[in-house]
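Suppose you are handed only these lines of text.
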Amino acid sequence: MTLLPEAIGLLAFIILLVILMAGIPIGASLALVGTLGLALLLTPEAALIKVGVIAFDTVTRYELGVLPLFMLMAQLCFAAGASGDFFGLAAKLIGHKRGGLGVASIGGCAGFGAISGSSLATVATVSAVALPEMRRQGYHPGFAAGALAAGGTLGSLIPPSGALIVFGIIAEQSIGKIFAAAVIPGITQALFYIAAVLIMVRWKPELAPPGPRATWRERGAAALRITDISLLVLFVVGGLILGWFTPTEAASVGCVGGLVILAVRRKFTLPALSNALFETLRTTGMIYTIVIGAIVFSTFVSVTGIPDHMIDLVHSVGASPTMAIIVMAVMLLLLGSFLDGLALMLLMTPILLPVVHSLGLSPIWFGIFLVRTMEIGFVHPPLGFNVYVIHAQAKDISLGSIFRGVIPFLVSDFFHLAMLIAFPITVLWLPSLQG
Amino acid sequence: GRPDPNVTALTYASPYSATHPFSRADIVWMKWIEEQTGGKVRIHPHWGGHLLSSNENMLEIRHGVSDIGMITPMYARSAHVQRIQPSFYSGIGDIQQQVAVYRCLAEEFPAINGEVKGVRILAVQGGNFPGILTRDKPIRTLADLKGLRLRAQADTADVLRALGADPINMSMAEVYPAMAKGVIDGVVAPADALRAVHLADVGKYFSTLKIPRGAYPGRAMSLIAWNQLSPEYQAIFTRGEKIWEDAMVRELEAALISGHAYAREAGIEEIAIAPGEQERFDALYRANAFRISRHLEAFGVDGNAIAQRAAQLIERGVPAGCGVPK
Amino acid sequence: MDNTDEAPESLSRAQRFLIFTGSVGLIGAMATDALAVLGRHTGFAVVGSIEIFQVALVVALSSAILMVSLMNRHATVDLIVGRASGRTKSMLAQIGRVALAITFGLLAFGSIWVAFDLWPTTEMTELLAIRLAPFRMIWITACTLAALHFAVAFVKGLRK
Ligand code: NA
Ligand code: NA
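From them, the structure of the protein bound to sodium ion can be written out as follows.
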């Protein structure tokens, strides 16, 4: 019996979903299904050679080197004690207002997101500082945790972003342009969250009582603490967006800056350095295994011809780009309720990107849309990773309570997503200035 | 539908989209093959993907990742003669001549084909002469190159460096933003590339300094697939080499005309280089070619002999019958 | 192979070694690129900086992937597994080990085949003529050891 390539592709996709949900490591699932599929569609020899080529290509790929280096930069900034500083400043400035610490949490996540490339790292780090502070001030625990779980997702939209880098590599788009494209969506997402906090507080004042007012001296001290790292971030991400250096160079310069800050803050010790390197290597090893698997799988997907059929389907039903985008968003949100973000993105990019091209949509816009949609999956049940991270830190706040606390932010997420779809200019304006 | 057992189906992979000039030539060739074999050989194209990698495409075809595909042997870190020989074409004329010289060299020097083992070459590819597109400063003499940071491929980098320029190798996709922001001052590229990358928005001057351009084997079939073809079909593919190469010439010429038209419409100033300056450049280029040809000695190849012969073929013309597809 | 009485120290020693080699690779890549930027803005050229970066990256990533493997820290989607019973959990963990062993086995095998095919050609980088074979060997070694690690872990899991 010979199966058509499309049937093999569909079958492979289902098998992949099943084994991913059975807890088979993501990288192994992608690589195994991809290799097996290639062996069936080509020959076992061709599949093995292709896997060998992809593996070494991936580990020698200059542009992908930006990923571990941005992670190292973030780790060095953490080692310098940057974790709570952004929140600290915002809390000192507006903590005395009703809901002020909630707004400060969002601000802290946005600031930290400009150092960290990941949503999980952002939520874990900022909530370690902000959650106890909010609870001490009498915040409703579910509301406080919800704000942080949602705020954490700013980490993977505000540049630098590991998810956007990986998308750029798979979709072959300029990472500088993608980062530029993410700036306005990142900032507006934070503003939408702040609006959500303020509306909730106005509706239910007991959620977030005001705290003591900080003195200007305390505020000045807090501002001073973030100056060096803010300048570094501005230089690195700004220089990258302005085209002073390539993404990989920006990350390298950022690491050197991180080392300097470490030295200036008198925290340049061997344990601090080796811990930063260890954490970087650990995350890097995990992500690269997934990326290799994803590239093998995406090669297989392209051989099945499924993307071409998707394009034909979209054209034959005469779907408008907006209709297609909405269908894609619904599909991604559904899949996102039981798949983790990176796996989802790596799975769907090879299938959806050709459709996006054929509809005449910008792949850069699509990257932002994809990461934005995927982030929503980080906070919505049942598999909201960020929610689990916070739950692990504060076991006394129930998962249900956090998920309920997230609801206002999910509502704001849908408005924000709708804005990105209705006004692509919010995404494409900054990169268009880059030329 | 179910595959017909009487039809040989072959896959074809190219990193270019179906509308690229290269792909249009590919399609002409595919139709010709199908017509000549009465539809008994069908070629299924796979456009724009990564079925074949940019460095190891020969290796991949050799092992059947795709039956046929576009190859770029000068990017393979294992093909030393292929990497260096495109620098040997100083003084060369049009694309047909580039192809003829390569074919003759490949016939006379086994080392050239030794690096493309396991595959059957189906077409040799040349290209239009690159010029230099700059942002702020027109290049009228070679002295104008001094201090300019230019995107250039490795085969031109040495000469540009000797002239005081600062050549850097970056992906063509990054050229536009890099030029827009002044990270680089210009790019070495043929006029046909200007439109594709919208370079008129970021460059003002196009100097038609003729930078030599060599040919290389550009399309290949795995021997696994080749050996399964009947001698009759093999003969058709052999005749097809000319079809493919001619189609490529037509497409590249059309692309060049369109590139120049684009440059005119967009207001790019085309600058001719004085003949004396061109000669000086050619001399430098030639000297560099002979210098790097010696690098091949380390691999047991007499690179100097290949470079000498190339110069001779360019000067006196390719003898009749040399390098004709067999 | 009998690894049942493997001392925990030896693993941590291996880990420390990998942190060291990985760090050397990472810092090497970082320094090369940072120097190249500095050079570009102050007027000297680091010829072949990308090539140095690439080989440094191989060392860093081979170490990182092997280290994560030895620590059994590959990412999973644990929506269902997280809620499964102990017995189901350990069975799925066993399947996960087999999957990882096969995956790294395939990566190693494919990489060996490619390296073997290119071996006679003296593969090297363009500008600095850095031989690639040793770096292919490093990568292959990392994949092979990771595959062996998961195979051993699977066998150990069977005995429990
Ligand atoms: Na970020
Ligand atoms: Na999710």
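What can we learn from it? Chain A touches chain C through 60 residues (CB under 8 Å). Chain A is about 80% helix and 0% strand.
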